[in-house]
Structures are given as C-alpha cells and as structure tokens.
Recover the amino acids of this structure.
C-alpha cells in the first residue's frame, strides 16, 4: 500500500472502493509504526487488530489514543510509573462512542505524566520527539498523539486538554487540535487531572476531520455529571458557509512581550487571510489574561492534589511491598511511583488548600477566574470569535526548559484562559516560521457551545493556506 | 518564602516521602512558583464571586445502578488480596503479613 497520509475522509473512501480492508489499513499503520516510531516515540504500545462496529461513520479508521483514556482490557499508564502495569477495567465513554462508530485503535500514545506538562518530557517512559525536528519537543501533554498524526502514524488521535494539552502540541507538530467546550464531551474513563478544566478532543490532519469526530464524541453522559444536554448537530454542515460579515476579535494582550516575531508574522498573515475572506477584524481586550497562568497554577495543583490522592498503593497500581504499616505503603508507593512534576504539583496544591492558606490562594484564584471569564463574555458581545497565536514560540529543544518549571508553564499562556473560561478552542497550522521553518498554530476561540463557528473559520482558513 | 520545615510539613500532608537532600531544591522551585503566583494579589477581586465551574449545572443526578464492571476485574488489580478481598497493612499496629 502506498503512503498517502490518510485523512478520515480518504480512509473511508479507500475502504468503500475496496482499495484496502479495515485490517489492511490497520496493519499498514502498525508496520509503519514498527519502522518509524523508534525515532519519534509517539506510541507507548500498539494494540492487536480488533474490528469494531462495521457500519458506523468511522468504521475501519485507525486511531491513536492518549494513554490517559481507558480501553477495557488494555494497559493504561497515564505516562506514570505508578500505573505502569495497570489494566483498564472498563471503557471510557469516548472509547465506547468511537467503538460504536467503528474506529479501530492502533495503540496508546505518550504523554506527560498524568497530562502534567507542555513537552511530553515528563513521561516516565521517556520523551517523544517532534516529527518536524527530532531534536525538539512535540509539545504536551498530548505530545504522542500530535506526533503520531503529524508523522502519519495514525489517521487521527484522541487527546485531552486541561490548559492547552491538545492545542499546543498540535501547533508545535503542525496538525489540527480541537478542545470542545467544557461539558460537551464525557470524561468518564479519562484519568482525572484537573476536573474543573479537563476536556477530551481530537487531533487530526484537517479541520473537517475534527468536525466529523466531534459528531461522534459529544453528548450528555449520566456517568459524567458535568456533561450538558444539548441537541446533536452535524458539525460538518456549515463548514463551507460564507464567512463574510463574521466578526473576529484580536486580543491586544496576545501580541505583547514574550511573543516571538516569526510567530507574530504568521499569525498576522492568517488574520489578513480572514479579512480577505470577508471577516470584520477588530481589536478586543482581555485585561485579566495576564493572570491566567498564575490562576491555573493554583486551581490545577489543588485539584491534582485531590485527584491523585487515590494513588495509594492499595487498590491498584504500583505498591511498595517493603512497607509494614498502611501509612508507609501510601508514602513509599507514592515516592516510588510519581515523577518530579507530579510530586511538585501535588505539593503545590496541598499547600494552597492547607489550613490558613485557602482564602489567600484557592479562593483568590477562583475569583480571578471569574474575572477572566467576564473578559471573554464582554469581548463576545462584540465579536463571534477570537483569534491569536496558540503558543508564544515554535517547538523548543528537548531539555531546554525541563529544569525550569515556570518557563515550561508559560508556553501555555494563550491556551490556559480558554480552559479557565470553559470555552472551545481550535489550533490549526498556518505558514511555518520564516526563520525556523517550524510549524505555527493559529488559535481560534469560540463562545461556549459554538464549536460550529470556529470550525467553519478554521476550515476556510485552512483551504486558503493549502 | 517557604522554609525547610514548610516543605517537610507539606510533604507529610501530601503523603509523599522526600529525603533531606531533596528539600533545598524542592523549596527553591516551589518558592519561585509561589512568587510568580503572588501577582494574583494585584488583581482587584472586591465583590467578585469565585467561579468553581463553568457549565452552571447543579445537582446532576442519575439512577443508582451498577454498570456491570466485574467485581473480580477490580480485585485483580490490587497488589495484595485474600479471599476476594483487598489486603492492607495494619493501621495501628506494626506488621502487615
């Protein structure tokens, strides 16, 4: 079979015309992974061919799944030693939906431990390399999923996004990453990191595929009490609808210090294309966005310290067998099982929530979160979507920021506020950097539950860039 | 800003064991993060309500039923079991086995 960098659409076409069978296209990708993934290390493992529903909208389309999403009967490590030998006892709702739609699962992809990171260097199983430049990070935490799609080691991938973990790696690797509105997609079976921010979404080769996958992934789920009841729409319906008159806001705060010149140039170029397509471009202000990283690094660690309390060496996962008492089992298992960043965030959160500090940190951050959300509400009175860069720089070198947690945190500066406000966000590749020639992500932020508009803008911008 | 004693206290609350040599490095990194976070104090939050979630959903309930995950699957994951129960170390005494 010849290499064709298959999209969902072209895979379905190939299956329909009999160019290949579901098993053949699956084996094609498995063979390709065996040959090429030793350099990229996008996958933590590969899975045997299992055919799911035969007459679904995704029947026979091979996908890669971030290794914090449970597939019953297969290992799920979350990139952590503490879950190195954990076997999922049930399917995540997203997996259940993909099975019913007929997708097949090629393997589980690498991630920063428990999805905490922006480079995939925090994985207990070693870093993933960016297919565009192997000396650079693919971004994170869904770095394995983004690299797998960018290197054509899968037709599409599933990731999770808590502060930018789908959009930032998609931007760094030159693929499309989509974070739906908080409440759109069930997180049942996603290993919880920051429950008030986590959201599952697709990483794809084009915007159309993201829209198509959203049709499958969304919906109310009794097993995730944060999912909302909304009528299902076909997200691919209006992708071609004329953009003229659509109001696009550009936040002035996103183009200040800290944004690399070559990123700025490519983003401004993308905005010009939208203007040529008839969009009305105007400046908007998100004055509290300067606080988004500080707010995130109170809220996320606080929820992490609570969510990761379940890893105690008792019910599942790594357990220290030398410990004689219960408390020693907890302490020693967690010492052995968690990596440096997980420990750091657990300690940050434990401190922020501890007696005497709750008001100063956690409550204060939740109030600033309100201000960040209100900035967006105000901006969306005037515009239909907000655009800017996904990240302030192109992919950085492996090792460049790994010893400085704060420098790493700042690579999510434009994406985090979208999670804090619970909004949908899309990153798609625009013109590569003029100096580095590396991928640059263009970020489109929408109103809550208005995924259709940002997919439509993204799709038409993509057509102009191709 | 954080002292060695603070770090030991936080580690104890978090049920994480850290060695004495690790303390200075952890203290330094956590302190620099808290220093950065300190900028939140420049945001005026008088009369601003905290926002704990974005969907506005309240009291989402569902029917109380088991969804069929087999008891044995769950027990098999535990490192130490006996007679279909999970075995744990002693809470008050010393020996486990």
């Amino acid at each position: 079979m010849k290499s064709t960098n298959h999209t969902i659409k072209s895979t379905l076409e190939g299956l329909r015309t009999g160019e290949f069978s579901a098993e053949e296209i699956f084996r094609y990708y498995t063979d390709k992974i065996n040959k090429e993934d030793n350099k990229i290390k996008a996958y933590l493992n590969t899975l045997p061919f299992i055919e799911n529903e035969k007459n679904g909208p995704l029947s026979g389309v091979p996908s890669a799944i971030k290794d914090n999403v449970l597939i019953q009967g297969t290992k799920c490590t979350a990139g952590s030693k503490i879950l190195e030998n954990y076997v999922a006892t049930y399917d995540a709702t997203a997996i259940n939906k993909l099975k019913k739609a007929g997708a097949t699962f090629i393997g589980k992809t690498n991630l920063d431990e428990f999805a905490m990171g922006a480079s995939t260097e925090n994985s207990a199983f070693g870093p993933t390399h960016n297919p565009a430049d192997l000396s650079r990070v693919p971004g994170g935490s869904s770095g394995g999923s983004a690299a797998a799609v960018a290197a054509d080691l899968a037709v599409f991938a599933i990731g999770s996004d808590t502060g930018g973990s789908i959009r930032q790696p998609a931007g760094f690797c030159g693929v499309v990453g989509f974070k739906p509105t908080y409440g759109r997609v069930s997180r049942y079976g996603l290993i919880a990191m920051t429950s008030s921010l986590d959201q599952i979404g697709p990483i794809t080769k084009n915007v159309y595929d993201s829209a198509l996958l959203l049709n499958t992934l969304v919906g109310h789920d009794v097993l995730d009490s944060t999912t909302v009841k909304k009528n299902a729409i076909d997200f691919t319906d209006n992708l071609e609808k004329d953009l003229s008159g659509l109001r696009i806001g550009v936040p002035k705060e996103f183009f200040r210090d800290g944004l690399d010149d070559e990123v700025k140039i490519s983003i401004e170029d993308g905005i010009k294309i939208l203007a040529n397509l008839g969009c009305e471009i105007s400046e908007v202000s998100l004055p509290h966005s300067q606080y988004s990283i500080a707010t995130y690094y109170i809220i996320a660690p606080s929820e992490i310290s609570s969510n990761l309390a379940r890893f105690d060496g008792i019910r599942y996962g790594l357990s220290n067998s030398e410990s004689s008492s219960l408390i020693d089992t907890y302490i020693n298992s967690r010492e052995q099982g968690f990596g440096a960043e997980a420990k750091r965030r657990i300690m940050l959160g434990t401190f922020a929530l501890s007696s005497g500090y709750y008001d100063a940190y956690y409550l204060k951050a939740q109030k600033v979160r309100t201000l960040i959300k209100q900035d967006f509400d105000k901006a969306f009175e005037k515009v239909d979507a907000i655009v800017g860069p996904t990240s302030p720089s192109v992919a950085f070198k492996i090792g460049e920021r790994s010893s400085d947690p704060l420098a790493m945190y700042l690579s999510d500066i434009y994406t985090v506020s979208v999670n804090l406000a619970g909004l949908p966000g899309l990153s798609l590749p625009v013109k590569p950097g003029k100096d580095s020639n590396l991928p640059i992500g263009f970020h489109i932020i929408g109103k809550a539950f208005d995924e259709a508009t940002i997919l439509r803008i993204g799709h038409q911008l993509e057509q102009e860039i191709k | 800003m954080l002292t060695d004693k603070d770090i030991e206290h936080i580690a104890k609350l978090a049920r994480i064991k850290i060695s004495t040599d690790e303390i200075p490095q952890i203290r330094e990194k956590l302190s620099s993060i808290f220093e950065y976070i300190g900028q939140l104090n420049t945001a005026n939050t008088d009369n601003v309500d905290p926002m704990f979630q974005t969907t506005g959903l309240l009291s989402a309930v569902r029917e109380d039923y088991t969804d069929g995950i087999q008891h044995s699957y769950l027990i098999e994951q535990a490192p130490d079991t006996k007679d279909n129960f999970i075995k744990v170390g002693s809470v008050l005494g010393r020996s486990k086995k």
